[in-house]
């Protein structure tokens, strides 16, 4: 696999703590990334926000808004308006597995983007957070049809839409962008620590070194299924709550709840790797070599076209949605995302 990295990927080499693949955007000023010593390594990077909380927090002031999706269901979101909504796009943050609008990584990113003047929507996917009261779950990493309907209805919340997908939410976002191609009604997109292959993520999470992560996520998903009692047949809920692994949860609950035969079909049909070559919207993907959940090999095995729409940054450190750097309280991936969005806005204004 190391040989394939060298042969198939052309990187812009630098000594700034990351490598840049795919499209290089002229004038984009990407800050260097050097890990904070006390948070060095995959696990400390991953757990930092859980241990001490986000570096920035939100005020309790937001507007509760809803978006209609198929079947008469509604997805709830927390909307943070901005005086600059007429010139800046609204950022729709899509949470990850077992998450919702209150997830630490969602709060961290939302607070930073709001501080820069962007309007923000913290979206709750099917059955997650406040959406549990207005929709039937479970959500999964391929429910791009839901995202398409949210994007269509969110156009008036800012001067266009930017998507920001975290972890599993990033897989959903990349799948949506690939399906839409040049017709996607969004100005830009950012994915952080996103899976490309859902099956390899499950295999990685089931490794012994990830047992605590796996069990934590599985407990969250079991509790999530418990909230859906009454929405599905009792036997389906019972199988979800009895699942001994995330794979079994997907095989016995997530997949059949959406008419799929099992986990293998779910992963095969919905992994982002099948769709990203069709993305035409400016898209930034940020990943870490030492992400303990999402194998970097899935990124290494692809060719990234310098003339395509995707810019890929792979940091030497950063863990899973970590990227806590030295000398700056705001995580590196959030600062890079803000620079990316700001650069696009400046370019459009200049044009």
Compact description:
The protein has twelve helices and nine strands. It has 351 residues and is α/β, with parallel strands linked by helices. Strands 1-9-8-7-6-4-5-3-2 form a nine-stranded mixed sheet, sandwiched between helices.
Walk me through this protein's architecture.
This protein is α/β, with parallel strands linked by helices. It has 2 domains: 2-197 and 272-350, Alpha/Beta hydrolase fold, catalytic domain (Rossmann fold, 3-Layer(aba) Sandwich), CATH 3.40.50.1820; 208-270, no CATH class. It has 12 helices and 9 strands. The chain has helices at residues 2-8, 42-52, 104-115, 144-153, 168-180, 198-205, 211-226, 234-242, 246-257, 263-270, 297-300, 332-350, and strands at residues 18-22, 63-69, 73-80, 90-94, 120-123, 161-166, 188-192, 283-288, 310-315. The protein has a 9-stranded mixed sheet with strand order 1-9-8-7-6-4-5-3-2, with helices on both faces. Strand 2 (63-69) and strand 3 form a beta hairpin. Helix 7 (211-226) runs antiparallel to helix 8 (234-242) and helix 9 packs across helix 10. The longest helix is centred in the C-terminal third of the chain and has 19 residues, at 332-350. The radius of gyration is 19 Å and the shape is globular. The model is unreliable at 1-13 (pLDDT under 50).
